Amino acid sequence: MQYAAQTLTPGASRLRTRRERIAPRLLIGSTALLAAVVVLSISIGATGATFDAVPKLLAALASQASDPASAREELILLNIRLPRTILAMFVGASLAVSGAMMQGLFRNPLADPAIIGVSAGAALGAVSIIALGHGFAGPWIELLGIYAVPAAAFFGGMGATLVLVAVAQRRGQLMVGTLLLAGIAVAAMAEAAMGFISYLSDDRALRDLTLWRLGSLAGASWAKVAGIIPFATFIAMLIPYLVRGLNGLLFGEAEGFHLGINVERVKRLVVVATAACVGAAVAVAGIVVFVGIVVPHFVRLIAGPDHRIVLPASALLGAGLAVAGDIVARTLVAPAELPLGIVMAVIGGPVFLHLVLKRGAGGLEGR
Length: 367
Description:
Blueprint: H1 10-43, H2 53-63, H3 68-106, H4 118-132, H5 138-144, H6 148-168, E1 169-170, E2 173-174, H7 176-200, H8 203-214, H9 222-249, H10 253-258, H11 263-285, H12 291-303, H13 307-331, H14 340-364
Antiparallel strand pairs: 1-2
Helix pairs in contact: 1-3, 1-13, 2-3, 3-9, 3-11, 3-12, 3-13, 4-6, 4-7, 4-8, 4-11, 6-7, 6-11, 9-11, 9-13, 12-13, 12-14, 13-14
């Protein structure tokens, strides 16, 4: 099932014109939606502190007043909720952009970052640290401290990527079909390795491992926010360079080459960018499903396959969806907390089925 170049019929021309009108509105609406859920995320919580306390808190910080109430609100709003919201935005945007790039690379709207095994590789790296931290991984944890799990997840994702590139590369060209099949095999082997590590783990490590794999932002902190800044900067800088290449690949690799696109360079950039995005997101929040497939697919249904719109709109909507899911996760059973991965699966699964059933095959082709 591929995006294909077609001669525009009158109906297709009208659809294209409608999508061109919708695209700016989608970007504006996505930005407004993200701003709204960010305010809600900072305002809502089990402690009762709300967003209207922010001006008073900033005034107290400026005057260096030592009010106990201000200190409590500073802890809740600025040191707990705000970094958690920022991390949720990063996770959602990273996974959605990764999904959009994968769908463009494979020319298949059902593609997902997990399809090439990067998510599984990142998860294996993190699981190894969580489950074996009291054994041979102890020196690694002592060296990196709170950065041990994120670093292991990132290197796990990059390791899986290097394996995939080595397997799928033929005469200097990256074979997309081979990459897909190799990704399935890498993901299966990573899952088997995680299962074996779980089998060897004691009860405490097994519980931590299970909770991490369900996905959560409960450990959010400014230290983790600082750790993702390089990845966020890398993604923001890379997106403009991928737009033209991904648009060219919509017509096929041969057609893209004749349009003057360095196809092999685009494919490598997409794979490396996906590894960085997914590795960082998995390191921060564990395994969060459906964002990478539902969000870009929805954007394509609304605004078409043009990556000038798909990539930024996916980032905005993915960030908003992850923040909204985190609000549900920490408030639905307060003061306890649901795993974010479960919430996103409950939200994303029915939404994706609805899109598939409503649009049918035509909707899946994103035309």
